[in-house]
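Board notes (copied after class):
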Amino acid sequence: MKVGIISYFFPPNNSSGAQRWSKLAEYLKDKGVDVFVISSIGDRFGGEDYERFGLLKRVIRIYPLRYSQPYRFPVHGKLNLLKFFIVLDSRVLFFVKYYREISAILKREMPDVVIISVPPFSSVLTVRTLLKLKIPYIVDLRDVWFYDPRRPNKLADFTIEMWALKNARGVFCINDYSLKEVKMFNKNAFLIPHFYNPKEYEVEPINHSDIWVSHIGSLFNERDINPLINALRDMGLTLRLVGPGSERFGGLGPVERRVAIREMVSADILVAIFGEGEDQKYVSSVKLFEYLGAKKPIIVISPKGYIKRVAEELGLGICKNSEDDIKRCIGEALKGKYKPKNSDKYTLERVGDEILTLLQMICKT
């Protein structure tokens, strides 16, 4: 079986969007699948990791297409007039520029099935070529699209999403709210959560004598970490911030993946934070699932919806974004509470096997 993956975000890009299919591409390759990837290179959103890119290139055929974008710390979208006129997203020019080249690669490779990783939503422009070549495709919808309140042009979104999804052999969704949206357009919708690879966490932790409470991953500007900072200062504990956006608070900023994993393994407590007023129905935190591999106590601040249900299922600490509640949760974590329970269902092996079975089924029909 030959599988093509169209994933704009892919190493060397180091954003959360690059992690899902870089790990799954490796997994499918290890299972004997012939895999190739069409991606961008030069977009520095989320930082870059050329070490991981080099490792992947040794085992997977990657077609990296140059598209330079400067680094910026992660921000959630703001409702503005410009967004109304940008029907898809800011990466649409990449798919316009490389439309012919992507088409030529697909025609040359002629895979049994193609997986389109979305967002960017402009990735679905490749559907036109896939339909023309009669190549079956799956859309992996990592964010809600039409239901996302940050996107004002509902008519355009509905029309484009319907066109892209109705012709897909299947759609992978990252939460139940996304599943509800997709079923408007395609009945073959599957909930495929994020996951972690246990092998990545077999690293030597960093030696330290103080207690580290660590936030590792993108720190969106809508998420208020001042209550966390104040609570840890009062408790005499060290706050460790690593990842895009953390540099605003004296953190390490973007780092290579191996460094991020080592930071997770070295933490005494891991923290995931969400905004109090943030609508979480259209997101699913990659960070929360990747924390599971470190086997450390995890505290989730202000979760809602699907994210809260996952946290409850795993027995994680849940608190409001207030100094007192954060102190309570951290105190309980220091006593041994909130280590993940029954997290094996979110391993790469479990999720990868489900995807492999679905791909085999689709290729037979």
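Comment from the instructor: The mean pLDDT is 92. The two ends are 13 Å apart (CA to CA).
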